[in-house]
Amino acid sequence: MAIATCELTWLRCLFKDLQVHLKPVTLFCDNQAALHIAANLVFHECTKHIEIDCHVVREKIQAGQIVTKFVPFYLQLADIFTMALGGDNFKKLTSKLNIFNIHAPT
C-alpha cells in the first residue's frame, strides 16, 4: 500500500502541475489488517513492529488524498496473472478482462 500511495502522490502532483484537479483516489486492498492499521493509529499497538510505511499511508488518508477500500481476494483481477486459480474463478476473471480463447470453436 505504501508503494502505491507514493505512486498516487506522484501522479497527483503531476496532474496538479497540469492544472487538473482530482478528487480523492481510491486504493483497493485485500488485507483488512493493513486497512485497519492505516485508518486507525490505535491498531498499530497490536502489531509487534510498525513500519514508517503505515504512517505514510495514514498521512495521505488524513490529508484526503486517498481513500482505502476493501476488495475480497476472489475479486482481485491481478490474481489471474500471479497465482493458480480454480476453473470458475479463472473464467470469471478472464471474462472481466474481456479475454477470450481465440482457438475455441465459434
Offer a quick outline of the entry.
The chain is mainly α. It has helices spanning 2-17, 32-39, 52-62, 79-82, 87-96, and strands at residues 25-29, 66-70. Helix 1 (2-17) packs across helix 3.
Descriptive report:
- By secondary structure, the chain is mainly alpha-helical.
- It contains five helices and two strands.
- The protein has helices at residues 2-17, 32-39, 52-62, 79-82, 87-96, and strands at residues 25-29, 66-70.
- The longest helix is centred in the N-terminal third of the chain and has 16 residues, at 2-17.
- The chain is flat, with a radius of gyration of 18 Å.
- The termini are far apart.
- The model has no long low-confidence stretch (mean pLDDT 82).
What's the Cα radius of gyration? 18 Å
List the strand order in the largest sheet: 1-2
Which structural category do the helix and sheet elements fall into?
Answer: mainly alpha
Low-confidence stretches: none
Largest sheet: 2 strands, parallel
Count every beta strand, where a strand is a DSSP E run of 2 or more residues. 2
- The helix/strand series, from N terminus to C terminus, equals HEHHEHH
Shape: flat
Number of helices: 5
Distance between the termini: 42 Å
